[in-house]
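Appendix B: complex inputs.
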Amino acid sequence: VMLEWLARVLWAAASLAVRAYCAVLAVGREASRAWVNARERALFGRDPREALRRSRERLALEKRPAHVAFVFARPRYVRCEKAAELACLAAVHGARTVTLFDDTGLLKKQITTILGHLSTYVKQADLGCFQFVLNTANGQHYVDATETKSHTVMVHVVSQEESRRVVATAATEVALQKPRQLETRGTAYETLADDISDATRIGSVVFTEPEVVVVFDDYTIIPNFFPWHIRLSEFFWAGRPDRFGALQLEDVLRGYAHTEKRFGV
Amino acid sequence: ASAGCVGGGTHPQKARRMLTLVASAAYLVVVVPAAKVVRLLVIWVLSQGAIPRHVAFIMDGNRRFARKKHMGSVTKGHSAGFSSLQMVMKNCFDLGVKELTVYGFSLENFKRKEEEVQFLMKLAEDKLRVITSPENRKAAEQNGVLIKFIGAKELLPKSLQECISVAEDESSPKLVEMNVCFAYTSRWEIAVAVEQIAKEGGNITSEAISKKLQLSPPDILVRTSGEHRFSDFLLWQGAQSVFMVHDIFWPEYSFWNLVSAILYYQWALPEISRRKAVNMNA
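Resulting structure:
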């Protein structure tokens, strides 16, 4: 009994040490971000246009992701204003598809609010050249449909409901239309896989593979996010979203630009 | 020339030899047993918390390890990687992990250089012959290790396919499971599940796909080499698993890395359980 008690005490001490270590790392990371954000604001004020312009100029990358996904892993991290801001930031850095995901579908329920925030941010940050289209399984919503813009940015607003269903729906479609393609022997599975990829849709829009997935979570737990599409995505766990801004996204994009897609090739 | 040479060496040389002998003896008598005791102690303490049932590994970094250690050839890195796998298997089973899955060879790896691919096939074949030798087979049966190969086996050389079928003996009593993903990708696994459901005439739903997959969800997914991507491994099953990335190469993976992964898992477990409950209710 005493030995068992001793083992439990030692285990509790080890667990506490792990938690303390992770807590220290998290606090350090948040403090660093807060300091960086405060310094940026002090130097350049709160002008979003200026912040975005500097962000774009600062980041001269050869490789930029065309599709960036932001995953809000905890319900209390879901913020429409932050989601709108992140969509704009990703668009400024070259992304033409942005995905906003949360497990429980809170973002989908607040489409109108996100639309409002997007509209405000577009005006404040002078992003009039971008046409933001909010795409859900039920339809599309335009920030400003009155005039044609230079760049269209597709913003998918999704939840875990679509995450796996799109694969099942696409596979069913392929099975009905191309029953002879249902062959996986040898390298034949590649044709089936390509057909399924081409058939996965959110509403009427084909859902592509995100190159970068930013997960707002306190733990490195794999989110229930579009398992078919994340085979080569670079994941970045970013903690709290309210401390994630232009500078942090730049770090993520720099990290992405320096990775190699290998499989040893 | 012989001045100072007594009994085959000078005094400093003798002293150095004596010191080496004493150090070796001390290492064998004190350090090695102490390390074993510490290891047993750590396993005992760790088992007070929840031990993950299934741990999966993406064994990344063999070639970079070979380059780092100036081994001359990347194939030596793969051999070092196999030794590391044996040690990790032992550590996992000592810790009480019931299922171990490793990403041995991806379907995408066939695009590598021909000589490297052939070496990997040969390495797998040689190691399987060792594992399935009579003495090792008996040990595996006594310990209840069930080995399964998951992947497009028809793409592998015939000789390797024969070795795999020998190694996959379903009749042995199963206490622990070792899954080796060879010529595998997660999309291949999902496509096979879709094919099976379609041929059986069932509806292709996400639940049906989950039931047809060949691998169970892991509790921890470990990747070495510091890369934060899944490389088409356990994509469907990996949701709500802890993802541990270690910034070391696979041949450098040690018992202490595994301990840190399990401690982190134990810390995150309440949150994982909460999310799984929420998802089930949803």
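The first helix of chain B runs from residue 11 to 46.
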